[in-house]
Amino acid sequence: MLEALTILITAAIVVQLAVFATTIYLHRTATHGALTLHPAAAWVFRFILWITTGITTREWVAVHRKHHAFTDEEGDPHSPKLEGFWSVQLGNVFHYLKALRNDPGIVTQYARDLKPDLFDRWLFDHGPLGLLLGITALCAVLGLWPGLAVAGIHAFLYVFVLSSSINGLCHSIGYKNFDNSATNIRLVAYLTGGEGLHNNHHGYQRSPKLSFKRSEFDPAWPIIKLLTALGLAQHRKTINDVRSTP
């Protein structure tokens, strides 16, 4: 019983580490330039992503920018309106891989501003190595089978539930504050560091805060404010700075 609880708690921590690194670094910083991170803070987020997801920053950024360029229109790499809801909700990762495979120039076209540095070349561009190190660390701390269980739960929740819900559910059901094809789902936002406020994001892509109404909560925003207070981040105007809060 205690071991099972340890596995679940550890998996939840690993999932949320990946979630916050994704939304703060990959999405708001690298993709949209909504904030600028101190190099030390950026390195920490990059390392977390490397050992928890194996994502290559330039590839993720390129696919996401293309999504914004062709949102729910021909050319969108993962639109449920084009590909079908369940195809994106259950197989979003495969649509990312398909976009990279079928469009070899996607990184050059959509992420030309992100030049690989020494850490990318030696570490962060080698996703499988990062995942192997992350899983090895879990097994070393928790034991072989508990470590593998945590890794499996994390992979399932991060890849097939949370990340896919942003591109699946949040382009299919939910409410809107702004006139675009994305939607807001508060529960998804609570679990994804604010990413479930997807309609708000599509309305104001360069806002470092994804919440707009007082009834909405962006879990990553307090962390961004703390980083800013510590001199580890600078951010652009928020959605509420340019629009009055209802």
Automatic annotation (TrEMBL):
Indicate the segments forming the Fatty acid desaturase domain, all copies: 15-205
Membrane topology is: Multi-pass membrane protein
- Which biological process annotations from GO are given for this protein? fatty acid metabolic process
Q: Name the UniProt key words of this record, in alphabetical order.
A: Fatty acid metabolism, Iron, Lipid metabolism, Membrane, Oxidoreductase, Transmembrane, Transmembrane helix
The answer to keyword Transmembrane helix applying to this record is yes
- What terms describe the molecular function in GO for this protein? oxidoreductase activity, acting on paired donors, with oxidation of a pair of donors resulting in the reduction of molecular oxygen to two molecules of water
Its subcellular locations are: Membrane
Q: Name one GO cellular component term.
A: membrane
| Any Pfam family the entry gives | FA_desaturase
Q: Quick check: keyword Membrane in the entry?
A: yes
Main localization (coarse) = membrane
Q: Which residues cross the membrane?
A: 36-56, 122-145, 151-170
Which family, according to the similarity comment? Answer: Belongs to the fatty acid desaturase type 2 family.
Q: What is this protein called?
A: Fatty acid desaturase domain-containing protein
Where does this protein come from, organism-wise?
A: Candidatus Doudnabacteria bacterium RIFCSPHIGHO2_01_FULL_46_24
